[in-house]
Amino acid sequence: MWDVLSDGWLYPLWVVGASRLRDADKDWPNVGAQLHHSVGIWPLLLDDSTEVLECSPGSRLLLRARGWPVGAAHVEITLEEAEDGTEIVIREQAVDGPGALVPRLVQDPLLSWRNVEALRRLAYIVEHRP
Questions:
Q1: Domains of the chain and CATH, by start
Q2: Peptide bond into 43 cis (omega under 30)
């Protein structure tokens, strides 16, 4: 699982809303490294970036994902060993821009749906990777 998370070029394959990756810093996922991505659907694509705020290799990533004009979010990804593999949890919260003004009562169900789909995509990549 960590191999997939630490390969920035796979980001648009599992992150819901990410359409393409324009560039990935060579030192991803070290603190300060960025992924330069586009969000949306063509022709309405917005270029933005995601930055690593904290990294504990193999167990935790804290990201600042930008997606203007909606704003920015903190995304925490944790991995823990489980009996049958790895348990991965994604927690996301809007922290800047108009998205941060949306009450958590509204944010949480939408972000939960998005992150369940992201986890499903991650599982497909991990399970079918050579």
A1: 2-128 (3.30.530.20)
A2: yes
pLDDT of residue 105: 92
Contact 105, 85 (CB under 8 A): no
4 pLDDT tier (thresholds 50, 70, 90): very high
Q: What residues contact 33, with CB distance under 8 A and at least 6 apart?
A: 8, 24, 25, 26, 27, 51, 52
- Quickly count helices (H) and strands (E) in the chain: 3, 6
pTM of this prediction? 0.91
Q: What is the DSSP secondary structure assignment for residue 104, as one 8-state letter?
A: H
Tokens of 28: 């991803």
The burial of 80, by beta-carbon neighbours within 10 Å (0-12 exposed, 13-18 middle, 19 or more buried), is given as exposed
| 3-class secondary structure, 16 | coil
42 pLDDT more than 90 = no
- pLDDT tens-digit profile of 60-70? 999 999 987 88
The answer for 67, left when phi > 0, alpha when psi is -120 to 50, beta otherwise, is beta
